[in-house]
Structures are given as structure tokens and as C-alpha cells.
Amino acid sequence: MFTGSHVAIVTPFRKGKVDERALGDLIEWQIAKGTNGIVPCGTTGESATLSHEEHNRVIELTVEVVRRRVPVTAGTGSNSTDEAISLTKHAKEAGADAALLITPYYNKPTQEGLYRHYKAIAEAVDLPLVLYNIPGRTGVNMLPATVARLAVIPNIVGVKEGSGVIQQASDIVQTCGGRLAVLAGDDAMTLPMMAVGGQGVITVTANIAPTEMANMVKAFAAGNIEEARRLHFQLSPLFAALFYETNPIPVKEALGMMGKIDPELRLPLCPMGKENRDKLMQVMKEARFI
């Protein structure tokens, strides 16, 4: 289940509400274009500004639209363990195949606290769980030793490693790669991480280039290193452009340029500055996405 390119899908809004039709259309397009899995309500899905009702509905709708054609890994993390358990229980009831759980943000738990947080969720909800480490967002870095401790828990089956440090990814693969799937959490690190044993990516870029991201991962897994490298370099300008400003501002703008969604955001996120938008548009044109 946890191999290939899994899109961290945006949550489209229209006039302040979740645009369910646009989300359904995006999911159908992703599956048609070869994406290996859908990940709703992650960072890219603006989970931080969804109400609990909206969060639950986005997961329910995703499961309904996907209809078991690809895995659905629902974002259910929180900096409150009780809240994470509640969201994860709902994801299971909604029919999600797995849950993605970000490390608790702002309150900066110790490594022991991280271990106890994930252990409590795993014991409370019988659902495959994917750990999510992204210290640039959360203020805490989950160390390989902590991942290794958690990897012995049967329903902890993967980790999205977004530290951006290849040595850390390598250490995770070396210590527990046989027990859980290691997925890139930074699109530009997908190929380097697969080179040390990673199995795929949970990706922002696939929102724009689903086929190319899926083909890059597939090519490397099949041993076609030159093709994987070619696609990596082809996508590299987009990897950078989608982070000209805070994710998901640029990816929503790019989808708006493609006519896929209204690029509406919720405060405190705001529309892209003109200079960066112009640069993004140039990258999109050169890549022939618009």
C-alpha cells in the first residue's frame, strides 16, 4: 500500500466553504493520471484551518469518490493526543485505509513524549498508521531511534520523513526499513531517499504533475535509474516553484492557473505576491502545464 506517489491533495474552497465538486474532480483526475494514493487533510490540505466537521467531511468525501481504487491515507494528526485519537477513529469509521499523523506541533514534546503519543494512538485505533516528521513545520524533530522504537508496534507501518536530511532518512531505513515503509516528505528528496531505500513519496507536486511523479517513482523502483533521473531534473523547477511561498499557497495558485480550482485560501494564508506569481506562471508555462 505504501509505495509509489501519493498526492497530498489540496482542499479547494469556494466562498469560504469546501468546494466538494472541485475536490471530487481533482480526485478523479489524480486517479486517471496514475497517482498511487490520495492523502487528504494534510498540510497541503490546509487541515489547520478546517473545522472538525469539515475535516471529517473531506475524509468521508475522499473515501466515497475513491471507491477503493487507490489507498486513502487520511491526515489525522494533532498536537493533542486525545484529538488525534478522535480524528483517527473517525477516519477508520469513514473507511480510510490508513492515517497520517504529524508530530505534535508547538508544544515540542521530548522523544519520549513522541513515543508515548504515537503508542497511545496505535493502541486506541486499529488502523495502519504513518508517522509524519517535518521539523520545519512543527518545531520538533523525531529522531531515527524514536522511529525505530515505534516500528515494533504492529499497526505503525510507515513514516513520511520530511526533515530534508538524507542521513536521517538513511538511518531510518537502515534501522527499521524492513519493518515500515519510508516515504519522502520533500519532493526534491524523493529520488535521493529512494536511492538509500525509501519506497515512495507523499507529494505536493503531484497535485500539478501526477503522472510525472508516479512515473519517476515507478522508474526508480523498476531499476530504470536514467529515466527516474530525467524526470527528477524535469520536475526540479516545479519542486522549487511550489515553495516560493508557504505551501499550499503556490500549489493552489498553480491549480488555479490550470483551471482546476478557485485558488482560494483561508487566513492566515493569503494570495501569492505578484512577483512570485509571475515566476510561478513562467515555470508552469515552460513545463507546459498551462
Task: Spell out the key features of this protein.
single chain, 290 residues, alpha/beta, TIM Barrel, eight-stranded parallel beta sheet, two-stranded antiparallel sheet, 12 helices, 10 strands, 47% helix, globular
Explained architecture:
With 290 residues, this protein is α/β, with parallel strands linked by helices. It has one domain: Aldolase class I (TIM Barrel, Alpha-Beta Barrel). 47% of the residues lie in helices and 13% in strands. The protein has twelve helices and ten strands. The strands form two sheets. The chain has an eight-stranded parallel sheet. A two-stranded antiparallel sheet has the order 2-3. α3 packs parallel to α4. The longest helix has 17 residues. The chain is globular.
